[in-house]
Amino acid sequence: MLVRWTLDGLFGLRLPAIGGPWEGLTLGAAAGLGYAVGAPHPAGGGMVTPHRRERLVAVLLVAACCGGAALLLSASGRPMVGGLVNAIAQASQGSAVALAPLGALLGEPEFGPLSRMLAAAFEGALFGAGLTFGLTRRPRGGLGGGGLGVRS
Question: How far is the C-alpha of 132 from the C-alpha of 31, rounded, in Å?
Fold first, then answer.
């Protein structure tokens, strides 16, 4: 809402509804599902901390889940970042930013539905991969060798 108010107040750009709790909930649920399925389950409980091949599998599975969720969100008319950038570019007169060339690569005359959905899937997959890669990173060294300085 802050972005919409700023663009409207400063530049007079009126954009369609962008982002919100449902998009965040959907992407978060997709990331959680992908991680729950893709991460190893330690015997007897404990923290799920994949590494090496297990980490790669978790990253790829969360990326696939988030990409699929973003694709479905875009197909239902909820724009992701690419759709938002395109909406801002269309609302701005004389803007040099245009995503129509992406649509042309797919045979669309402009940044159409197929372009939006593929861009959204790519954005969602990057989000999921980055999130999982970052959350499963194991610090080297650190405080007391445990990373957080906590010893058991």
Answer: 8
